[in-house]
Amino acid sequence: MAIAAQRKIPFVGTPDTNPETRPFFDAAAQGKLVLPRCKDTGKFIWFPRGISPFTLGEVEWAEVSGKGKVYTYSVMERANPPYCIAYVELAEGPKMMTNIVDIDFKDVKIGMDVKLKFIQTENDGPSMPFFTPA
Amino acid sequence: MSLRGAGYIVGAWEHPTRKATDKSVTLLHAECAKGALDDAGLTKDDVDAYFCAGDAPGLGPMSMIDYMGLKVRHMDSTDVGGSSYQVAVGHAMQAIATGRANVCLITLAGRPRSEGMATGTAPRAGNPAQAEMQFEYPYGPATANMYAMCAMRHMHEYGTTSEQLAWIKVAASHHAQHNPHAMLRDVVTVEDVVNSPMVASPLHRLDCCVISDGGGALIVTRPEIARSLNRPRVKVIGVGESAKNPSAGDVDLVYSAARFSGPPAWEMSGIKPTDIKYASIYDSFTITVLMQLEDLGFCAKGEGGKFVMDGNLISGVGKLPFNTDGGGLCSNHPANRGGITKIIEAVRQLRGEAHPAVQVPNCDLAIAHGTGGSLGTRHVGSTVILERE
Lengths: 134, 389
What we know:
The complex is a heterodimer. In chain A, the strands form two sheets. Chain A has a five-stranded antiparallel sheet. A two-stranded antiparallel sheet of chain A has the order 1-2. Helices cover about 5% and strands about 35% of the residues of chain A. Chain A is mostly beta strands. Chain B is an alpha/beta fold. The relative contact order of chain B is 0.20. The interface between A and B is large, with 43 and 44 residues.
């Protein structure tokens, strides 16, 4: 197997659908991963939201390193082209859903180090964070 | 106040169709209602409470109440996917116990097969106001790859193998051969499963449930009514419901919501897993069964692979006969929601009305557990424990 063609990335709604998540999309457009962090506990939150699910208190937005490890993954062989969905555990703590890209999927392993790569979604949609081998 | 014994399942009926090209979803619901009422020896006019979920067309329960000509004083359309029907049994118990209902009708129906739905492999775009949608849909979360990520992690942490998962399908196929309505009636081997095409690694085609049309219905009544009917009495002695999700990033995919829905159901019932003679376990995928068996306490966490091997789930062979109708893996997964058929087969077993080849002798205690939503993200687990009186 070689590296599969990159599928088109869909997106539903716009970055204004949930307006309080704007900081995520604005940062993504600049190639940065910015996530909400609970002001009470200091814990980063995935998926982005405007209130802390830990305390229902306020969040602040902060950039993370973009370094992580594959927690789990699955290659959707039935799709054309196939793609590799995964949860990546960020160095800062939370595990986020993503795809592992730019790799022969048979080389993906749980625990492997990965780094950020932003890909723009189709129809001039926002950029979203993906991961490649570190 | 304990709900133990507050309600009895007096009617249970599964639609025989697996492909309903000539029938609407509403008609299938109504036929299931009629089937369950006939089974109980009751009529439509006896029903005073109606329960349905998201498979029922219309706004909540309103359209189906209209379509079937019901007059109800209590209704509930809690939609938690395939686990909705175990939840409905619990909610029916509450309604009966608090004097809000005497005869509760629960229906499910759908026709994803006729509609050509790619249930497991096509990601479904939802309402972007559902806040997780914008942060998950771009990554292609279908059903199969969500459950597959659980299987991949379970294999990593506990050494579970594809061959062990395959045993679950093998057991289901041994049961389905006796069910004339089952979609897949051929007995399969471990080799057949692991050599079937990969859908979403590590899950193969035969690790996945069928896509079928059909439906089912249940009637739950208060004890006095159950005693007045000429049917074996199936008493509900334990119920539990709970949600699990990615917890804002604290993702742990090796267990399911059954870890939380099981304990209150066991406590209410006063029995323990080793007392169970028959288990209906939600089987959207083989991994679903394995994780729920662990989480319900049938074996220790991580031991599910060893537990299901060597025919341990096959009726007449193993220690825990499961899904003796063939389950979702081989028989039926109507409306992409298998919760109600789990309860129906448990009722058949407790009444002694399962197929003779798979009937568990002296079956007096059974469990029917449902999972709705996605094991890889957010889902609800719901547990019902039943006793033949």
